[in-house]
């Protein structure tokens, strides 16, 4: 009677049918596997502040302004500042100019002023008032801004990018512009990394620098034959950029060397009707580095754990329709002074606090789910299952006796009835659970879900089987 490991703790793979998966998951939602192979449910959220601006309004921008010790939030074209002193959120509107609605906001600061762009007129604030740029040489439609060496740089769709006077954010000159000319391509986004300006286009990327004279010029070899299909998918990290390229592949770019990230959802992403609306967010939480890629039109959100190089999906559980929708987040910032993870809501003017100590989505169910492939343990012979053991541990939480839900499918046929397996009361330490799934099979699929508001860590699974003649 051999004991075999059950592959419930590996990466997900959806580029093929589950019938050919022996050692991969066919589905992984709202959970992740850490560097040691333990499985965790995603951190949840709690309401931090409700602006009450009506249904369907999303938070389009969130930014931690370190120099001013302010959280800046953009909702329905209006700008608000928030402090969090003594764990109390205090919010004040910064009045004056307005931004457009429904487009992610890009921020840049020179320390004194914070500049914001999202496809309409550029605005700036000193924390007290919100202003349009009075200088007539500032273009009227700008989508991206960045900062380098005393200059605010701005771009919109077209092959030009613009900059302010040095050390004078409010003054711009009609001659302060340059064109990306390595190929007939537009600039759809600009970002600064390692004191170089990256100009992203649909077909190419150009890299420029402050040469001290022009003041900006393209660096030698600074023309890359790779493009970006979604301007808001770009995530800048300490190690480089992550983005969705013009062939719908996820790319990591460090300097001049792009590398393609193997994505187990590639087939699904290739089949989406729209991907140009992808929004990329970087969230450091629970000792992990999550890159979340939201596809609003497709109502899907995928994540990449940069530390483990594993993928998964995250979403809000719709109890009415019994399906997952896109994740509730629309923008994010981390405030180091208050150790506060701020998440701007999608379809709501709420701002949430994201924390490892929360296990619901602002009181709603946070439902995680894992489904294996069709496991045959390396042979198509019939096998008898004598016992399945799952090693796990529950944490403390509001739920007195949380449960996990378990079901299985034999030989690709019908799913069994769902069984609830109690994890005991808080303080109980029985960490081995034995779901009822004996019987004879050639291949099996297992599915585990949980909905209770409590931490559950799953570490291992093994099965005692007999190989039959």
Explain what the structure shows.
The chain has 469 residues and is mostly beta strands. It folds into two domains: 139 residues, Sandwich (Jelly Rolls); 320 residues, YVTN repeat-like/Quinoprotein amine dehydrogenase (Methylamine Dehydrogenase, Chain H, 7 Propeller). The protein is built from one helix and 42 strands. The strands form ten sheets. Strands 1, 3, 4, 36, 39, 40 and 42 form a seven-stranded antiparallel beta sheet that branches. Strands 2-35-41-37-38 form a five-stranded antiparallel beta sheet, with no helix packed on it. The longest helix is centred in the middle third of the chain and has 5 residues. The radius of gyration is 25 Å and the shape is globular. The two termini are 14 Å apart.
Helix content: under 10%
Question: What structural class results from the helix and strand content?
Answer: mainly beta
- Which class of the largest domain in CATH terms? Mainly Beta
How many domains, as an integer?
Answer: 2
Structural shape: globular
Amount of beta strand: over 45%
CATH topology of the largest domain: Methylamine Dehydrogenase, Chain H
State the fourth-level CATH superfamily of the largest domain: YVTN repeat-like/Quinoprotein amine dehydrogenase
State Rg: 25 Å
**On the 0-100 scale, what is the average pLDDT?**
92
Main beta sheet: 7 strands, antiparallel
Low-confidence stretches: none
Q: What is the number of beta strands?
A: 42
Distance between the termini: 14 Å
| CATH 2nd-level architecture of the largest domain | 7 Propeller
Query: What's the tally of helices?
Result: 1
């Amino acid at each position: 009677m051999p004991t075999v490991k059950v592959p419930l703790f590996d990466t997900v793979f959806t580029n093929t049918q589950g019938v050919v998966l022996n050692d991969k998951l066919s589905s992984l939602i709202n959970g992740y596997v850490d560097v040691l192979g333990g499985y965790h449910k995603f951190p949840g959220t709690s309401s931090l502040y409700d602006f009450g601006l009506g249904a369907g309004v999303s938070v389009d921008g969130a930014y931690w302004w370190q120099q001013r010790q302010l959280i800046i939030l953009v909702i329905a074209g209006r700008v608000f500042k928030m402090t969090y002193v003594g764990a109390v959120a205090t919010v004040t509107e910064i009045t004056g100019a307005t931004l457009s609605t429904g487009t992610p906001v890009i921020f840049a600061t020179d320390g004194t002023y914070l500049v914001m762009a999202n496809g309409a007129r550029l605005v700036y604030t000193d924390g007290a008032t919100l202003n349009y740029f009075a200088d007539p040489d500032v273009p009227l439609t700008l989508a991206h801004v960045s900062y380098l060496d005393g200059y605010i740089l701005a771009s919109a769709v077209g092959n030009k990018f613009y900059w302010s006077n040095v050390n004078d954010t409010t003054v711009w000159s009609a001659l302060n512009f340059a064109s990306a000319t390595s190929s007939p391509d537009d600039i759809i986004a600009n970002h600064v990394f390692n004191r170089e300006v990256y100009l992203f286009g649909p077909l190419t990327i150009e890299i420029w620098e402050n040469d001290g004279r022009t003041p900006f010029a393209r660096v030698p070899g600074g023309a890359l034959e790779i493009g970006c299909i979604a301007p808001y998918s770009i995530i800048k990290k300490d190690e480089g950029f992550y983005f969705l390229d013009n062939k719908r592949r996820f790319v990591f770019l460090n300097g001049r060397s792009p590398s393609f990230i193997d994505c187990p959802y590639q087939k699904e992403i290739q089949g989406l009707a729209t991907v140009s609306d992808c929004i990329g967010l970087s969230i450091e939480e629970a000792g992990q580095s999550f890159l979340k890629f939201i596809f609003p039109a497709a109502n899907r959100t995928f994540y990449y754990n940069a530390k483990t190089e594993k993928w998964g999906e995250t979403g809000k559980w719709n109890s009415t329709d019994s399906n997952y929708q896109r994740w509730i987040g629309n923008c994010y910032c981390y405030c180091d002074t208050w150790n506060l993870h701020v998440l701007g809501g999608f379809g709501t003017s709420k701002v949430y606090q994201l924390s490892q100590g929360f296990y619901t989505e602002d009181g709603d169910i946070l439902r995680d789910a894992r489904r294996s492939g069709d496991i045959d343990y390396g042979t198509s012979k019939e096998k008898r299952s004598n016992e399945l053991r799952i090693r796990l541990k529950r944490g403390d939480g509001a739920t007195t006796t949380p449960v996990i839900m378990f079901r299985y499918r034999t030989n690709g046929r019908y799913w069994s009835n769902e069984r609830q397996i109690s994890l005991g009361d808080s303080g109980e330490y029985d960490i081995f659970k034995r779901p009822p799934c004996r019987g004879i099979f050639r291949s099996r699929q297992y599915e585990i879900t949980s909905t209770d508001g409590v931490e559950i860590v799953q570490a291992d699974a093994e099965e005692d089987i007999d190989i039959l003649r």
